[in-house]
Amino acid sequence: MSVNTTDLRFVTFTLLGVPGLESFHSVISAPLFIMFICSVIGNPLIVYIILSDRGLHAPMYVFLSMLAITDFMLSLCVAPQMLAIFWLNSQIVHFSRCVIQMFFVHFLSYMETGVLVAMAFDRYIAIRQPLRYSTILTGPVITRIGLVLVARGVFVVTPCVYLVARLPYCGHEVINNSYCDHMTIAKASCGNFTINSIYGLTQLILAFAFDVSAITFSYIFIIKAVLKLQSKEARSKAFGTCSSHVCVISFFYIPVAFTVFAYRFGKHIPPCIHSLFSLAYLQMPPMMNPLVYGFRTKQIRDQVLKMFHKGKN
């Protein structure tokens, strides 16, 4: 029996997890669980350290706090449902819950890439205009940047809710993944999802192309400025402050690029590969970001060591 778009409260989806690898779900869940634990411990720890140490209230660490909060929320949005599928075989999700998850997955992904752009801009100002750094990136300016990122995410993702709600669903909705996103919901419908595909690809290309271009140009100017420094020690320190950010960018954009383009153009790639890469792009950055900044940022590393020493005493 077909279900009308007016009867969306009766629509459910079956999430397959990693299709084709169902017998390995318990094995796949182990690294995902470790990633989840690292994220929900590491990211709040980063925020706590930054808030508790007045020496870490510089713009760079404010943006790092934004990134940690975004990563923490992304993990909570996706990982518990993934683990429920892998451990409890809890595959059925109602339409409203699936759409809410879709909204936050996309919104938080846009927040993540937006914060990475803001952090690149922060490093650009710190290296190109070190004497004006604190006067350019003031508290109100950082607040406005944060609000713009939130507004952008809401503006870009909200149409996706309407676009999936307008599609007809026929009672056999299956999603070849362990979470809901725009195109997996659209492809699970029994209607024409061409508009969804066009909008999804267009907004991804526009948003990510802008963000990647902004980061690239920032680092071109950063490298030029660093190479002009006379002191070898100063050049090494400048590159060191950027290396953590470059690592974090790689962890986020490489899986995203593969997932987006392979999902739309890689028709011969097995569904399990699509699913595994989409899991990586959602779970790896929230785990790796606090580890990278915790180990490579001396001020944060020192605070973590102090906390462990206090705990032992």
Which SSEs are present, and which pair or pack?
Elements: E1 12-15, H1 25-52, H2 59-88, E2 92-94, H3 95-128, H4 133-136, H5 139-165, E3 174-175, H6 182-188, H7 194-227, H8 232-265, H9 271-296, H10 298-312
Parallel strand pairs: 1-3
Antiparallel strand pairs: 1-2
Helix pairs in contact: 1-2, 1-9, 2-3, 2-9, 3-5, 3-7, 3-8, 5-7, 7-8, 8-9, 9-10
Transmembrane segments: 28-51, 63-88, 100-121, 141-165, 204-227, 239-263
Membrane topology: Multi-pass membrane protein
Protein name: Olfactory receptor
Structure in words:
This protein has one domain (11-312): Rhopdopsin 7-helix transmembrane proteins (Up-down Bundle), CATH 1.20.1070.10. It starts with 11 loop residues before the first strand and ends with a helix. The longest helix is centred in the middle third of the chain and has 34 residues, at 95-128. Strands 2-1-3 form a 3-stranded mixed β-sheet. The protein is globular, with a radius of gyration of 21 Å. The chain has helices at 25-52, 59-88, 95-128, 133-136, 139-165, 182-188, 194-227, 232-265, 271-296, 298-312; strands spanning 12-15, 92-94, 174-175. The chain has 10 helices and 3 strands; from the N terminus they run E-H-H-E-H-H-H-E-H-H-H-H-H.
